[in-house]
C-alpha cells in the first residue's frame, strides 16, 4: 500500500496530478494551470515532489498485480539523459508485447544487465527464452544468469536468440515511452528520472490492459488502495 500520510493535499488530487503527468504530454506548467482551473493551487516543485515520492511505489504495486506474461522475452535498452549524462533504461516485454520489467541504470555493463535480469525474474519467473541484439552487456548478463542456474543445480537454462525480427516488438514498444520522455528534454536528477519513468511505464501497462479493463485513471487510483 502506498502511504499518503502527511500529504497537505487530498489523495485524489495527488493521484490525478501524477497520473496526468506520466500519461499525457504535459509539462509541470501545463499541469499547474489545469489544477488551478479546478481550484487546486499547486506549484511546480510540489508537482515534481509528488511524482518522485509516489510514482515508484505505485509502479511496484502494478508489477505485483499485472496479468500473467509469456515466458518468451525480448530485452533491449533505451537511452535517457539525466544531469546531462546518458543513462540506460533496461526494458523487457514478452512475445505479445506485454511489459515485464524496466530499470534505469547509470551504466550499461554486465553488472547492470544481470541486476535487471534478477529483478525481472523475481517479478515474472524464469523465462524459457530471450531475444536480444548484439549488446555485449545483455549477452554477458544472460550468460551470468545461466551460470548461476547451473551452479545452483538447476537444470533450466535461458535460451538466447539474436534476431532482429523477434526484437521488433520491444523496439516498437520503446516508442510510446520515448514519445512521453521527449518533451521533457532530459531529467535534472537520476532519482527524478527513475520515478518519472516508473510512472510512465505503469501508465503504459494500463494502456496495454495488463492491469484490467476500465477507466485508466480509476485503475491507477486502485493501485494506491
From TrEMBL:
Residues 72-210 form the DDE domain. It comes from the Bacteria. It holds the Pfam family DDE_Tnp_IS240. Keywords: DNA recombination, DNA-binding, Transposition. The keyword DNA damage does not apply. Coiled coil: none annotated. NCBIfam families: transpos_IS6 (NF033587). Involved in the transposition of the insertion sequence. This is Transposase, putative. It comes from Sulfitobacter indolifex HEL-45.
Amino acid at each position: 500500500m502506498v502511504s499518503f500520510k502527511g500529504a497537505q493535499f487530498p489523495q485524489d488530487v495527488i493521484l490525478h496530478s501524477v497520473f496526468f503527468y506520466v500519461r499525457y504530454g504535459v509539462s509541470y506548467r501545463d499541469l499547474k494551470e489545469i489544477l488551478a482551473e479546478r481550484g487546486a493551487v499547486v506549484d511546480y516543485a510540489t508537482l515534481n515532489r509528488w511524482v518522485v515520492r509516489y510514482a515508484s511505489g505505485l509502479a511496484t504495486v502494478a508489477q505485483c498485480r499485472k496479468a500473467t506474461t509469456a515466458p518468451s522475452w525480448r530485452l533491449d535498452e533505451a537511452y535517457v539523459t539525466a544531469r546531462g549524462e546518458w543513462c540506460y533504461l533496461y526494458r523487457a516485454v514478452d512475445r505479445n508485447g506485454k511489459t515485464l520489467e524496466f530499470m534505469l541504470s547509470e551504466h550499461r555493463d554486465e553488472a547492470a544487465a544481470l541486476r535487471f535480469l534478477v529483478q525481472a525474474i523475481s517479478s515474472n519467473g524464469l523465462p524459457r527464452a530471450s531475444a536480444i541484439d548484439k549488446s555485449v552487456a545483455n549477452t554477458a548478463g544472460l550468460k551470468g544468469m545461466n551460470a548461476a542456474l547451473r551452479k545452483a543445480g538447476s537444470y533450466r537454462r535461458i535460451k538466447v536468440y539474436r534476431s532482429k525480427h523477434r526484437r521488433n516488438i520491444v523496439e516498437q514498444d520503446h516508442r510510446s515511452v520515448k514519445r512521453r520522455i521527449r518533451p521533457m528534454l532530459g531529467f535534472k536528477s537520476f532519482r527524478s528520472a527513475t520515478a518519472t519513468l516508473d510512472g510512465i511505464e505503469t501508465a503504459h501497462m494500463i494502456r496495454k490492459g495488463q492491469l484490467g479493463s476500465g477507466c485508466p485513471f480509476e485503475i491507477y487510483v486502485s493501485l494506491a488502495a
